[in-house]
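Reviewers of the previous submission asked for a worked example of the structure-prediction workflow described in the proposal, so we include one complete record here. The input consisted solely of the amino acid sequence. No template or homolog information was supplied to the procedure at any stage.
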Amino acid sequence: MGPVKKRKRGPKNRETKVHLIFDEKARKEYLTGFRKRKNERRQKAKEKMERHLKEEKRRIKQEARDFRKAHVQNFTPVPEVDHLVEQKTYNLPQHTVIVTEIDNSEIMNNRGFLGVNRDESDAEVNTDNKETVHGKGKVKARLKITKHGKMQLKKAGKPKHKNMTHLQDKHKLKKERDKRRKAEKIIRGKHQRKRTNPG
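From that input alone, the workflow returned the following C-alpha cells.
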C-alpha cells in the first residue's frame, strides 16, 4: 500500500451551521401549549364558519330579493291585454254578479288573500272596526293572517336552497353544545345532592 494522502478541507462554513440549544422554557411552552393551540384552531374555525354563515345569509337574502322582484314583475297586469279578459255579468232579482278572471298580482297585493264577500250593509257596519292611526288621520284596516297563511307566504317568497351546509353545521354544533351542557348540568346536580345528603 502506498502512502495515504490527506485531503485538504475547505474553510468551515459557519453561516449555515445549526447550533442546538436545549431551552427548558421553550420545551415547557411546547408541551403545555397543546390545549392553547387547539383552542386557537377552534377559534379560527369558528370565525371562518361565522364568516361563511354571514356570506350565505347575505346570498340567500339577495336571491330572495331577486326572486321577489322577478315574481312581482311577472304578475304585473298588462294594460294592452285588459280588454281581452272577459267579464260576465248576471243580473239576478236580488243582486248583480260579475264574473271575471283573477290575476296572481291581485292575490299578491292582498298578502295572499282575495277578501271576504260582503254586502253593502256589512261594509257600513265594518267601518267602525277600522283602526285610525293617531295624528295622521289615515284609516288602516285590520287584517288577520293565520299561522298557516304566514307559512305559505314565506314559502312563496323564498327560493329553494340546496346547499345551505353552513347553516346545517351551525345547527349541528348548537345541538351538540346544548346536549353537552345538559349532561354537565345533570352531573352537577348529582354531585350537589351527594354533598347535601351524605350517606
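Helices lie at 24-32, 34-74, 104-109, 120-126, 147-157, 165-196. We consider this example representative of the routine output the project will generate in years two and three.
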